[in-house]
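Deviations from the work plan: none for this task. Representative record:
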Amino acid sequence: MLKTTLAGLAAHKLRLLLTGIAITLGVGFIAGTFVLTDTMQNGIDTRFARSADKVDAAVVAKKGAAQGEIPVDLLGRIRALPGVTDAQGMVRGDAALVGKDGKVVGDFSTVGLSVPSGRLLRYDFKQGKAPAGPGEAVVDDKTAKRQGFKVGDTVTVFDQKVRPHRFRLSGIADFGIDQDAGYRGAVGFDPATALAMTGQKTYEEIDVAGGGLGEITKVAGGGFDVVTGKQLGERLAKSAGADMQVIRTGLLLFGLVSLLVSALVIYNTFTILIAQRMREMALLRCVGATRRQIFNGVLAESVVVGIVGSLLGLVVGAGLGGGALVLINWLGADMPSEGLAFAPRTAVIGMVVGVLVTVVSALLPARAATRVAPIAALRADLEPGSGRFRLGWARTTLTVLLGGLGVLAALYGSLGMEKGETAMYLVALSGGLIFLAVIALMPALVRPLGGLAGVIPARLGGVPGRLAVENARRSPRRTATTTIALTIGVGLMSLFAVVAASGKATSSAQLEKQFPVDFQLETHVGDEQKPVPGALVGELRKLPQLSAVTIMREQEVRVGDSDSHVGSVTQSSLGTVVKPQFKGGSVADLRPGTVAADENVAKSRGMRVGQTVRVATPHGAVPLKLVATVSGDTPLPTFLMTESDFTRYFGAKDPEAVYLNAKDGQSDQARAAIENATKPYPAIKLTSAADIKAQYTKALDMVLMIFGGLLGLAIIIALFGIANTLTLSVVERTRESALLRALGITKRQLRRMLSVEALVMAVIGAFTGVALGVVFGWAITNAMSKTSVFSLPYLQIVGFMVLAGAAGMAAAVLPARRAAKASIVESLASD
Amino acid sequence: MTSTYTGPPAGTATAVPAVVATEVTKVYGSGDAAVHALRGVSVGFARGAFTAIMGPSGSGKSTLMHCLAGLDTVSGGQVRLGDAEITRLSDKQLTLLRRDRVGFVFQAFNLLPTLSAEQNILLPLELAGRRPDRQWFDQVVDVVGLRDRLSHRPNELSGGQQQRVACARALVSQPEVIFADEPTGNLDSRSGAEVLSFLRSSVREMGQTIVMVTHDPVAASYADRVVFLRDGQIVTEIDQPTPATVLDVLKSLGG
């Protein structure tokens, strides 16, 4: 039996390849993920190991602690230890570098780091050398390139009190795999200067050369871990590798989606193959093969297909991993690579997963093969596809049960439940249930959906068009499985598109409604907001292009029994320029002696409107009446009081943020005027609402594009599924095509027929996917929060449909060519 | 059958042949493996006549029909269908010729399973973009007796009914020639007789031209003339055949 199977496979290499290609791509994705992440991890490990080589011992934060917070005086005590030749404290904080345009570099201030000279220097220098004293600094190579800084230039950096300091650039450094520094840019100083510039009071880490681990541990006390250089390297690599784990898990999730699609395609291909080889099976049964042998024969075939497909998949995976690495580096990331890492684990997982998925997908078709009666070998062959399909009780029960549950869960999650994560999980779960219900129901949907999708081709394509639409609808099960494979990819794509579009709409809707300002000014030197100089506010108030200047002042104080931000905004703007949503009271209720609280904070602290809140001020605790809660979608302080109260309790402070509105139609002039006014203040960062929106849109589009790329493979596999089904259908319909050719269909019309059939299948799949994606996008958006706004990205959705249709037609090219090539006379004679 | 047989109407079989083959040869393969299916066949088929092609298995009768109908290419010689020399036409021109001027009835698998009987009958006309002549359609449908089966799909029809649908399809477009390849090969004798008699009546009453390949002497006896083939060559022919005369010739041919 095994010999028969193998001989059969060898005789049908194309068939083997067609079946295997789905698994090749699925396994390729999984293997590629491992290859990519292993390669990146290897690079990181090597680099950290190399930099940690120079360290004999290091004092670091206890495992699990977020930050080092190692007291500065410990350094002196370690230096005094016998045998210690050098010890350096590592500093990390914010230090805002001023660019060539006179403004602070980047959207976030640059990172400030310590760069020790001597043996413990762990960074590589592209040019120059480490800073030799308080008058020198280094910058990272990317920032240097972008800003055009060269060694020897003078740069300005703000300290944490927004005082400018000037340094001579002694070098341009590669700070290595430091995500923060890579993203924001970094400035390095000698350790003492770094402490001064970043305002840090403690070290992140102390690196030691020489000395004994035991003595250092004794000096350091129990609050910190003391590790060897090797351990330090491992720790650093691990913390960088944590991201790698997230990346790997994320990629593997998409890999699973691809594998699911592969499984569907393989299941379908095997089912069709079995149906077509009914004669062969029956003949085997006639000559004495048992059901068990037939079953095993089909399974053996699937094992061979799985092995061949997975082996090819490993090769594809290595290619995909390498390609992704090249792409990532080309996109600007500096991923170190020590050659592609192809771990034995990758091969084992790839093979096991690939063969398992193939065999499991072939189980049902194999069982169907055993039901072929020996007599079928002698019967005249049945014409494939009657075009009719009745939902059996099993499918009906599944559809009703899963669908009903899913719809209830989705409705409850999106409309009934309290908004938030739990509701979103419920909606996601209901999405899974409904998708399963759709799988069960799909064969019954093929005829109506096919008719719908075929309306235009049947109208425009004449007889071939109508025949093609009929062909797509004639084997509902087959078409259903073929199209479902496409539904998965397109559905997830549409879901992401809808959620992204809704996210965009939500964010801008709330801000536009409650906080409609055109520009925002902030001081930009680090994590904490620094005040905007009052003198600048005065100048801005004089600008004729502006219609309103709103200032927000804040102070962190104790409110009740925990620390909170208390603040005020310009009284005349409240309710006119900025319109926060008050609940339980109105803007007019906010009078001296009262306070309004952020809705979420009030809720979590159990505060109710009407109660008294005690606010600690320099003049002692003040009781204020809580008159309203404020919706938390704006940058307002947690506790909002009147401007006069704020000034009374905290003095005439400079504002933390200034919001500006331009006069109608004078946006550009206003911007120019503001830029002019802020020129003497390099640390002031001007952002416009339009900028923020554009940035947010760009970020979301980027994420969507990455998801699209990752789901692309699942969609490609589904297209191979369409090509597979068509190829097999073409074989099945050899005589039918010959008859049509005899009756006067041209080769071109025959080819077009298959294209239209593929188009109809692709549109059925894509339409189902888009429908599911949009509905669940709506449900998830609704479940997310009360203020979310649903937005339908029409263009994208239409784009998905058009692309799917076009890709489906492309998938038909080869099968169509094959069909058109067949000789009429020979095809008529074949049976 | 309701149609009455009134004998051959005068003047239907004209002297101008509908299809003429001149020195047609057909070789499959090459070198030692070459099979000479047709070795210089010259024959004409009269317009308005019902001609049968007979011969033992492997005599080349089906190949001849395929070449005459433009389904297969010839290796040498020429075939004319009306005013067209079909041996010089491209695949596309051949396709259009078949669509517009030729009708087919095959032994089996004549119908598209996805189309109803009516759609199958009208298929060639629709492919050509011609509007069916409703009156003619009704007449043909009534002649083949399919009025109450028009909306059925092929798998809901018996073998004889399917073959009658195929005949109706061939007739409805009023082609210059209908080629029938063993049209009764898969039918029981009663259904076979039905199909043959209205093929004959379509010649007698509607002036249709039919060329039929068969190996059944009874089927051949419905034709006006039988052409015999052996080893790729025409060996003899008889007019106004009966099953007995056909059988005699076949015996003499050793088939």
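The longest helix of chain A spans residues 229-276.
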